[in-house]
Amino acid sequence: MKTHYNSRHSGFTLLETVIAIGVLAVLLTGFMVVFAPAADGIRKSINVQQADRMASALEQELVTLRNKDFTTGFNKAFKWIESKGNATDALLVYQYRGKISGSLRADNTPEPEPSLKDKLPGKDYVVVPMVRRRSDANLAKDLEAVEGAVYLVKCTQLIFSGGQLITGTAGSIKDPKTGTAVASADLYPEAVIAFSAEFHMLPAKTAAYISGSEFTKKFNAAKNPVFTRNLAVRR
């Protein structure tokens, strides 16, 4: 006696396959609807934390004396905010790996740690937030140990107009109440300089790019910052 097998039951029919694909598509769509906002929220949270670190580093560095170029932190902040229109003295904000052991540089910053081989964070190096002018001699070495992106920062003073603070003129500091240009920090009549800081992410973070003509083009054409912070420095 021979046993006959029905070939219909040896696999899925076309209809069953189509139905299975349809169910899978519905499940995937539902998953993306639920998961995408959560993932976007995580990315925004990380971006906000990074933005806060960069803004805090800028605000602190503006009043930190690292050499004898300025007599006070307020004088330094005045000049750095005033130099927004100059690509040579453009401000760059970034984080770099600084060596824990060894002596500090003349400006009291740790030597960069360019190599990660056999190095452990917290034991061999720490991540240091840093703000430097483009013309700073230490910038090129820092870039060899950069962690993350490098940001170009453009600072513009905020002045009073119609009872509220508005963005002033790039590359100049004025009396925030009268609008009269001020030549130096010693002649500035107020105790606080309020300013807007625009952070622009650079497309490259090598010393060759930042010292070259492409950076100057980026500086002159920079629009639509990644984020903006209204900050202030005090005497």
Task: Report on the architecture of this protein.
The termini are far apart. This protein has a domain of 121 residues. Strands 1, 2, 3, 4, 5 and 6 form a 6-stranded antiparallel β-sheet that branches. Helix content is 33%, strand content 24%. With 235 residues, it is an alpha+beta fold.
Largest sheet: 6 strands, antiparallel
Chain oligomer state: single chain
Number of helices: 5
Strand content: 15-25%
Shape by Cα distribution: extended
Write the H/E string, N to C: HHEEHEEEHHE
Helix content: 25-40%
- The chain-level mean pLDDT equals 84
Terminal-residue CA separation: 105 Å
By DSSP, the count of extended strands is 6
Name the structural class. Answer: alpha+beta
Residue ranges: pLDDT <50 for 5 or more in a row?
none
Radius of gyration over alpha carbons?
Answer: 27 Å
Keywords for this structure?
alpha+beta; 5 helices; extended; 235 residues; 33% helix; single chain; 6 strands; six-stranded antiparallel β-sheet
Fold topology:
Layout: H1 14-61, H2 73-82, E1 91-99, E2 125-133, H3 139-143, E3 146-161, E4 164-167, E5 192-201, H4 207-211, H5 213-221, E6 227-234
Antiparallel strand pairs: 1-2, 1-3, 3-4, 3-5, 5-6
